[in-house]
Amino acid sequence: HHLLRAQPFVELARAVDWSVLAAEQAVTEHAHEEAAWFYKSALEASVNVPGFAPEARFELMLAHGLACHNAGELALALQSRAEAMEFARGRGIGRDVARAIMSAEKSTPTP
């Protein structure tokens, strides 16, 4: 969080990495709202990182969706996973589209 705000003094790619590490730590502590926030921050910042791997961005989208789901934010979880599906579809990555669909199904409330 602080590293993302420390621009331009900290390399943005490094700040994204630290945000992901913070999200992963939050997940281990069952602080899912915090994890979702850190994943979202990393996603937003990664857009401005030259050469950021599309695969890594896709994984961040799925991780954000899962964190939202675990935090009870089902609408945000579905939105994040829908964005992941569109992202993968736009790159012709059928396998990843399927992974995003299966991930989204976990967030769909059952009657």
Order of helices and strands: HHHHHH
Distance between the termini: 38 Å
Could you describe the largest sheet, including whether it forms a barrel?
none
Oligomer type: single chain
Number of DSSP E strands:
0
| DSSP helix fraction | over 70%
Structure class = mainly alpha
Give the overall silhouette. Answer: flat
Q: From the alpha-carbon coordinates, what is the Rg to the nearest angstrom?
A: 14 Å
**Range of strand content:** under 5%
Number of helices: 6
Could you name the ranges where pLDDT drops below 50 across 5 or more consecutive residues? none
Mean pLDDT: 81
Task: Summarize the topology.
Layout: H1 2-5, H2 12-28, H3 32-46, H4 54-70, H5 74-90, H6 94-105
Helix pairs in contact: 2-3, 3-4, 4-5, 4-6, 5-6
Structural overview:
It is a single chain. The protein has 111 residues and is mainly alpha-helical. Helices cover 74% and strands 0% of the residues. It is built from 6 helices and no strands. It is flat, with a radius of gyration of 14 Å. The N and C termini lie far apart (38 Å). The mean pLDDT is 81.
